[in-house]
């Protein structure tokens, strides 16, 4: 095959050029994003039910919805949480579920349930979670002093949002902090009482004046006209001029009996930029869009906004494209330095400028052609797939060096250049294919991990498979063809004599090799001791998801645990920011209820979320300590989480589940266990360290009790009392003004007086029109009630979060505690997910090792020789662990990728070394004058000399290409540094292993008979 292709170099060259041209065309169409567009198998149903208690939301809304959704296909878990005015149901599906169909199914079931839900309930929102839901940036819209904030909200909703949505690549624009205008009506109680009227007269007048005649038409000959009442109101002035009839029959304008004005609707949440109220627009990209093209467009639009709307300030924050740019920059750096150092090392070892030139052509060619495979597998260019490409570059250089060195060696042996190219490739073809297959055998099974880890590994596995497959094609076809073209007309034959640099290295190798062979038993014992010692270093390393990177930003999540309003919440956040004034460069806060359409977390008025960007690491650490002490001193009831700001990776891998949660249900009822009964039971709870779950958290509340005896005595209907309470304390909407999709509510203005005063000074009418104080028919008391009601597919539960280091050790105690109280109990949480994932990972790695063994056994036609390759791996891993420990790095995602890169190169070197030993043994076996033992010694020594140069060149090139990252700074360097440490440590030990351990283990473990006799 190689001979056939090399006989047509022009055709092969033009074919590769065509592939490269097609790859560049495809590259322009590939989407560029931060993360692959993964369907997270979760759907959240959000319920907003103003003025409803957790009990009412659970009983009337969430319970019917849970019963209706329990039959969904692929549903694994269902959890609901009912709070004051809000409720959520989180549905978790199996990863094999088609989420498009599941989303449609959930919506259809919600539509069917609509008739069984309360009439005044707005249809529940159904939110599907996707990696593209993570915003790529946030646009801050800050009104200047004196500008109407409602008008700025309308500008953001009607203009800015639409202009940003028109940018190519934008899928969704979400807004928080909008303010809406309402018309407030405040009845004058004294004037109404003097005229013998009530506020109901005012309400009825406004309602009747805003009536509409839906669907009524009148026929006029051959024409038909739809009727519209001309008495509809549009503005506060229209309402003020409405005529109202008094009890004596006099007609007066409504403004004599009530104040009517435009006002801003009471806010349940605010967005702050710094200490100023503002709006935030989050920008979400399409899955097929290119982030590196979208962000410049967005920034250019902001510049236009600043010119077009000078009454507003704009700023761009939390730009997630920085991570992607860092990954692309690192790949470019690896290619640049890889090419430079490959050129330098090859020139140093081979002394011919044409060989580095061939490497310089093959590297970018392989990389560009790999993007064709991206296109056919519908992959995007993202951090995951880029890390896969970076992973494959090390082996790509390795393959190129091995092929070139082998062709050069064949020329040195006196073969014609064409035959040297053919023989040089054919000799190493089997070994290189085996090495690539073993790398894929280690890596690709990780795709079958359950959960989001497996979904992410798919992109990386395809990227690795793409670049390694292409690199084989380039190494077997393009490299020898280029060699033939560049050296074909050269009459000068490369000198067999090695340069002085390599001669010194060779003499050093020979010296160490002779010492090892003179005491083989001691050497193999030392290697045997190094394996467990190296692996034991892992116990000294800390483990984490992503490496510690220099983050100058932090987030603060606060739950005040007090029944405060949104305005008080905002005041507390502003006071905290004033304490920190001057220490941060940027701050933004989401206070109270968030208006984002895609927000799937808890929406509570008592919560606040702050994002802070500091000047440097030192000021950040100092201010974080100040925040802790400030909150502990001033708000001891508050609970808060303070830490580094999450990037897209953190948001993707974060789990809403507790680490270890003990749930229990009352087997005799379907209600939460009362506080009076639960608190004594909790004092006997068997965990050493635990905290209350949401179903046990309490909040202060006021409980009204109707006095039925007095209501019956004075003939006051229950609905009269309830109606008056809703007008006093709720948001009572008289009617709505609807114009072209814009809705302006007309609301009764809520009084700011204390509720006790309002109860005493508000009258209700009995059946005989006699008025009585509302307080006569109500009793109230302050109580601590459960803040949330939690439930799963089995019904209402309460729970505790276990904080012990070994929570599973108390499992039997939890069951005993529950049985004595007639409770059903179960354990759940991320602990069990992690345990399951770890078991899967161990199983998959065992399968990978077996696949690796089978491939090598087929390659070497031996059951023993593959074990030598397998035993080289722990030595390299130990070296990687040692360097990670020396430099204070951790075991994380990036260092794990580094281990795979290093193991791929190590396996490659070991396979080629054993393959060369086998070929030399076969050569010596054919010579009768050489005994099997002597032939083995010669093969081991000869293979070491032959493979010394490519092994050293591969390791040195890879290490030197990565070293600049160690001394670099910035986000990208911080991410890649653990990968670099793992590769450098593993290859340093791995090179020594390939040079000395492989021949040593071969001598001990492979039978010393002739290979032909062994195979027969």
TrEMBL record:
Keywords: Membrane, Transmembrane, Transmembrane helix. The keyword Nucleotide-binding does not apply. GO terms for cellular component: plasma membrane. One of its GO terms (molecular function) is xenobiotic transmembrane transporter activity. The chain crosses the membrane at residues 12-30, 333-350, 357-377, 383-407, 428-449, 461-486, 522-541, 841-860, 867-887, 893-912, 951-973, 979-1005. It comes from the Bacteria. Gene3D superfamilies: Multidrug efflux transporter AcrB pore domain, Multidrug efflux transporter AcrB pore domain like, Multidrug efflux transporter AcrB TolC docking domain, DN and DC subdomains, Multidrug efflux transporter AcrB transmembrane domain. The keyword Lipoprotein does not apply. This is Cation efflux system. It comes from Algoriphagus machipongonensis.
């Amino acid at each position: 095959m190689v001979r056939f292709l090399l006989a047509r170099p022009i055709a092969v060259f033009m074919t590769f050029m065509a592939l490269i041209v097609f790859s560049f065309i495809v590259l322009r169409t590939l989407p560029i994003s931060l993360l692959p567009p993964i369907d997270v198998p979760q759907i959240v149903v959000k319920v907003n039910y103003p003025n409803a208690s957790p009990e009412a939301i659970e009983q009337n809304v969430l319970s019917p919805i849970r019963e209706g959704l329990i039959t969904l296909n692929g549903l694994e878990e269902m959890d609901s949480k009912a709070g004051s005015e809000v409720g959520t149901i989180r549905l978790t599906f199996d990863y094999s579920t088609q989420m498009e169909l599941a989303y449609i199914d959930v919506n259809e079931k919600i539509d069917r349930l609509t008739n069984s839900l309360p009439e005044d309930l707005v249809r529940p929102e159904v939110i599907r979670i996707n990696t593209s839901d993570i915003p790529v940036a946030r646009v801050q819209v800050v009104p200047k002093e004196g500008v109407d904030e409602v008008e700025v909200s309308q500008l953001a909703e009607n203009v800015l949002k639409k202009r940003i949505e028109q940018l190519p690549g934008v899928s969704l624009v979400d807004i928080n902090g909008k303010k809406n205008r309402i018309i407030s009506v405040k009845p004058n109680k004294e004037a109404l009482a003097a005229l013998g009227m009530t506020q109901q007269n005012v309400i009825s007048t406004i309602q009747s004046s805003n009536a509409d005649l839906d669907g009524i038409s009148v026929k006029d000959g051959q024409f038909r006209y739809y009727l519209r009442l001309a008495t509809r109101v549009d503005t506060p002035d229209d309402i003020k001029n409405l005529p109202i009839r008094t009890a004596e029959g006099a007609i007066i304008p409504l403004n004599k009996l009530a104040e009517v004005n435009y006002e801003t609707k009471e806010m349940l949440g605010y967005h702050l930029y710094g200490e100023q109220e503002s709006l935030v627009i989050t920008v979400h990209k399409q899955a097929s869009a290119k982030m590196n093209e979208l962000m410049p467009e967005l920034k250019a639009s902001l510049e236009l906004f600043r010119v077009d709307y000078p009454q507003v300030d704009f700023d761009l924050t939390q730009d997630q494209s920085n991570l992607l740019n860092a990954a692309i920059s690192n790949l470019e750096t690896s290619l640049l330095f890889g090419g430079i150092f490959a050129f330098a090392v090859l020139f140093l070892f081979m002394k011919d400028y044409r060989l580095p030139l061939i490497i310089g052509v093959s590297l970018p060619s392989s990389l560009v052609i790999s993007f064709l495979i991206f296109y056919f597998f519908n992959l995007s260019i993202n951090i995951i797939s880029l890390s896969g490409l970076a992973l494959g570059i090390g082996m790509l250089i390795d393959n190129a060096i091995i092929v070139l060195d082998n062709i050069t060696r064949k020329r040195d042996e006196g073969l014609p250049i064409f035959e040297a190219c053919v023989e040089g490739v054919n000799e190493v073809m089997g070994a290189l294919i085996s090495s690539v297959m073993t790398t894929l055998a280690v890596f690709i099974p990780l795709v079958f991990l359950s959960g989001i880890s497996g979904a992410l590994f798919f992109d990386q596995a395809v990227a690795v498979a793409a670049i390694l497959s292409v690199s084989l094609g380039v190494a077997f076809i393009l490299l020898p063809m280029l060699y033939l073209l560049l050296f074909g007309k050269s009459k000068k034959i490369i000198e067999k004599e090695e340069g002085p640099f390599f001669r010194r290295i060779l003499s050093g190798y020979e010296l160490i090799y002779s010492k090892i062979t003179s005491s083989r038993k001691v050497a193999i014992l030392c290697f045997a001791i190094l394996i467990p010692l190296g692996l034991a270093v892992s116990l000294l390393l800390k483990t984490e998801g992503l490496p510690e990177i220099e983050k100058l930003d932090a987030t603060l999540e606060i739950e005040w645990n007090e029944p405060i309003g949104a305005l008080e919440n905002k005041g507390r956040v502003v006071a905290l920011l004033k304490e920190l004034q001057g220490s941060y460069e940027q701050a933004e806060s989401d206070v109270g209820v968030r208006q984002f359409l895609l927000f799937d977390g808890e929406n509570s008025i008592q919560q606040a979320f702050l994002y802070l960007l500091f000047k440097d690491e030192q000021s950040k650490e100092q201010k974080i300590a100040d925040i802790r002490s400030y909150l502990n001193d001033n708000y001891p009831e508050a609970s808060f989480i303070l830490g580094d700001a999450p990037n897209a990776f953190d948001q993707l891998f974060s789990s809403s589940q507790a680490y270890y949660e003990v749930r229990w249900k009352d087997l005799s009822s379907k209600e939460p266990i009362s506080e009076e009964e639960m608190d004594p039971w909790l004092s006997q709870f068997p965990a050493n360290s635990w905290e209350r779950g949401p179903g046990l958290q309490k909040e202060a509340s006021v409980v009204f009790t109707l006095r039925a005896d007095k209501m019956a005595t004075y003939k006051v209907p229950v609905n009269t009392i309830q109606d008056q309470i809703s007008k006093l304390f709720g948001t009572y909407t008289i009617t709505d003004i609807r114009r072209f999709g814009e809705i302006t509510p007309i609301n009764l203005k809520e009084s700011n007086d204390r509720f006790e005063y309002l109860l005493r000074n508000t009258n209700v009418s009995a059946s005989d029109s006699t008025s009585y104080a509302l307080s006569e028919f109500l009793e109230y008391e302050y109580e601590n009630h459960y803040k949330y009601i939690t439930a799963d597919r089995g019904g209402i539960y309460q729970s505790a979060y276990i904080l012990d280091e070994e929570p599973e050790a108390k499992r039997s105690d939890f069951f005993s505690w529950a049985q004595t109280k007639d409770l059903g109990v179960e354990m759940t949480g991320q602990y069990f997910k992690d345990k399951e994932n770890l078991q899967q990972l161990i199983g998959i790695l065992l399968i990978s090792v077996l696949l690796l063994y089978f491939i090598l056994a087929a390659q070497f036609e031996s059951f023993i020789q593959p074990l030598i390759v397998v035993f080289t791996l722990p030595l390299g891993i130990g070296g990687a662990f040692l360097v990670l420990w020396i430099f204070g790095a951790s075991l994380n995602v990036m260092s794990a990728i580094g281990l795979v890169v290093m193991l791929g190169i190590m396996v490659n070197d070991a396979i080629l070394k054993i393959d060369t030993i086998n070929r030399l043994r076969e050569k010596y076996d054919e010579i009768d004058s050489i005994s099997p033992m002597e032939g083995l010694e010669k093969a081991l020594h000869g293979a070491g000399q032959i493979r010394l140069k490519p092994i050293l060149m591969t390791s040195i090139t890879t290490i030197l290409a990565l070293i600049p990252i160690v001394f670099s700074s910035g986000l990208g360097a911080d991410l890649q540094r653990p990968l670099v440490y793992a590769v450098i440590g593993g290859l340093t030990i791995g090179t020594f292993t390939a040079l000395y351990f492989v021949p040593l283990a071969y001598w001990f473990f492979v039978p010393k008979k002739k290979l032909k006799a062994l195979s027969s």
